[in-house]
Amino acid sequence: MLKGKEIVLGVTGGIAVYKAVELLRLLVKAGATVHVVMTQAAKQFVTPLTFQTLSGNPVHSELFNLISEQEIGHISLAERADLFIVAPATANCIGKLACGIADDLLTTTVMATKAPVLIAPAMNVNMYQNPIYRENEERLKKHGYLFVAPVCGMLACGYEGEGKLQAPEVILAEAVAALTPKRLAGERILVTAGPTLEEIDPVRFISNHSSGKMGYAIARQAQLKGAEVTLVTGPTALAAPHGVKVIRVQSAAEMRDAVMGLLERTDIVIKAAAVADYRPKSRSGEKMKKSAAALSIELEKNPDILAEIGGMKGERLLVGFAAETQELVKNATAKLNAKNLDLVVANDVSQEGAGFNVDTNIAKLLYRDGRVEALPMMGKEELAGEILERVELLRGEGAGKAEKPGSPSAR
């Protein structure tokens, strides 16, 4: 997610410094090159050696130490940064930045950088609610500084309330968002994901092997690209993507109702869910007891949500998925035409690395004009980005482009 990016991580003095260690690990794992700047107070909580070992780079803390004979430390760090993160950020540090005070390496470097600055505050609840602090935060926001709000919880000082440093995973997500071009800003995207579950009785059900990973990755990447995203998901073990509105359903009928209720205010629909084609015609209210006799269950068809949307899609852009085990292109083309889709993401789930419950996929993209684009095996997060790039291109070409009320052309 951050491959090739240079990030400066500023660490100020507070008990939450230990979480900055985990944040550093996540940033490096995401592919970033990280340069750590520590205040003198931060070094009282965690030694620079810890950050140096995990980053693979020297830790900087002295304002007047030169990185090399030709480089002035704070200017060199400021210029190389694609993003500057301050986590944890104390009230003292935020106050100095708001007032333009640059009296140590960290504040001097922030003042000198032209990169986006992402600040994650951590402090006592009374300090966080202090009107002077609130004014300082608002002042920085007006100048374009980004903030990751702290959460409520038990604080090290014994108080409980706002002021606890946000989880490193959330700060990472905000860092990725800060560096992602917002090419889908203004678009309202509805994504479906996961399996549906059709009950036979209170303990048994019909379902499939879908993990939901593909749909969740699409929702996450669409949100990073600036879209307003709603995810309608069947039962999964996945955490909700940060910043995405999530609606949880169980059956195909529940998914259909949720999707249709959202359709009117949706510009793009991406149906990645593996919806059960059939459900038991009748559900037993009690557990069905096992017996020596064979058991037959009569099934009836579930609503075809994708076809229903295709029949009334208007100028919306509609993307579907085709999971097949034979004649991939033929079956996916038939689905595209029958359900009035703009794009189909087709994969042969019998291929190794392309089935359910794995982190990779091998996809072919089929377009309305007959083009077939074969993609190599890649991670589902990467594939989600590729799919959304094609969605951007299709919208740019006018495919499914609905004029929003109040736009110049609409007037």
| Structural category | alpha/beta
Q: Write the CATH fold name of the largest domain.
A: Rossmann fold
End-to-end separation in angstroms reads: 40 Å
Mean pLDDT: 91
Give start-end ranges of low-pLDDT stretches.
Answer: 402-411
Radius of gyration: 25 Å
Strand content: 15-25%
Helix content: 25-40%
The major pleated sheet works out as: 8 strands, mixed
Q: How do the strands of the widest beta sheet line up side by side? A: 12-11-8-13-16-17-19-20
Assign the CATH superfamily of the largest domain: CoaB-like
Pathway: Cofactor biosynthesis; coenzyme A biosynthesis; CoA from (R)-pantothenate: step 2/5; Cofactor biosynthesis; coenzyme A biosynthesis; CoA from (R)-pantothenate: step 3/5
Domain DNA/pantothenate metabolism flavoprotein C-terminal: 184-392
Binding site for CTP: 277, 287, 303-306, 321, 335, 339
Catalytic activity: N-[(R)-4-phosphopantothenoyl]-L-cysteine + H(+) = (R)-4'-phosphopantetheine + CO2; (R)-4'-phosphopantothenate + L-cysteine + CTP = N-[(R)-4-phosphopantothenoyl]-L-cysteine + CMP + diphosphate + H(+)
Comma- or semicolon-separated keywords:
about 400 residues; 2 domains; alpha/beta; Rossmann fold; 13 helices; decarboxylase; EC 6.3.2.5; disordered C terminus
Describe the structure.
It is a single chain. Helix content is 32%, strand content 23%. The chain has 411 residues and is α/β, with parallel strands linked by helices. It has two domains: 6-178, Rossmann fold (3-Layer(aba) Sandwich), CATH 3.40.50; 188-284 and 299-396, 3-Layer(aba) Sandwich (Rossmann fold), CATH 3.40.50.10300. The chain contains 13 helices and 21 strands. The relative contact order is 0.08. The chain has helices at 17-29, 48-55, 73-80, 91-99, 105-112, 125-129, 131-142, 168-178, 213-224, 252-262, 305-311, 328-338, 380-396, and strands at residues 6-11, 33-38, 83-89, 117-121, 146-147, 151-154, 160-164, 188-193, 198-201, 204-206, 228-233, 245-248, 268-271, 278-280, 299-301, 317-324, 343-348, 360-361, 364-367, 372-374, 378-379.
